[in-house]
Input
Amino acid sequence: MEYSPAKVKFNTAAIVTAFGLRGVLRVRRLRNCPLGTMLIETSRGRYVVRRTAPRSDLELKRTAHFLVYLRDHGFPVLVPLTDRNGRYWHPLGATVWSVHPLREWRLQPFDPGNAPQLAALGESLAHYHMAGKGYRKGADSKLTLERVWQLFAAVQPHLPPYLARAGRVLDEEVRYLCSALDVAKLPRGPILVEMDPHRFCFYGNKLRLVLNCEPDSRGPFIFDLANAVNRFCFGKNGYDLDRFETLVRPYDRVRPLGLLEWDAFPNALRLSAARQLCILLQRAFLDQAEPWAALEPKFHEWFDCLRVLRREVEGRFGPLLAVMATGYDYRRYQRSRSLS
Output
């Protein structure tokens, strides 16, 4: 994560005064760093300054309380300081800023090819779900069947003729998932949804921070695991069984997957791929946030993933299905019931 000691464009003195940071030694501008915008070094420690997306005071307060909740349960997150008015954020003009204590800042993003890091990610994902089980606040996330259906219905009329086949496949896929994927009985709670490697900050092979955890991202836990498998275990040659087991086995040791979750795993993978395709189409043709030429390689990669999951082409998905079919240990379930 790079940094540059360039001059700060916002009022550093106002931030330092608002949050009561004493003994400032150095202020650094962070460049291309997911941790934040500025690094303030004081005699009492380091603090990272982050720009917060414009939201209501209630949403900001709920997010801060959720981060405090995760920290109290031992999950590695950035917890904001309170300013002199007792708020976890501070408005400066049209922007909102937060300040977070930071022990280590020379961290590296997640490398999917690093097996120890992949195992640490699976274990931490399970810890996140375990900690979130007791957090009852929040609404369902964007990773739901209804929202994926709404997203596809909005983007479908804007698809160009050369994507007609992809549109038909997505229409068929979303209709199938709405009838085949029953999420009512799946364990649920706060989930990460997006599996961007830059969200997971490592020091060596140890996961030190997970960024951008939101209380309103709720849904079945298996959806998070499916997103991680599609994001980190699928490549040009299809699925990698070794990576899959390296990710899923540590998760299952911390939070054993139930029979319903193993059964829903294949369809959760299909939902994850369909959602990513709909998001890319939305950005290109509905929001026009990015040109299609820039998004087309990602689209084809996710479309190939969906075709493998639909068993239209070979992509080494069979070994993963075998693991899913035998992953649930019925004797472990019976043992836990007898002990309870």
Remarks:
- Residues 1-8 have pLDDT under 50 and may be disordered.
- The chain has eleven helices and 13 strands.
- Residues 259-286 form the longest helix (28 residues).
- The radius of gyration is 22 Å.
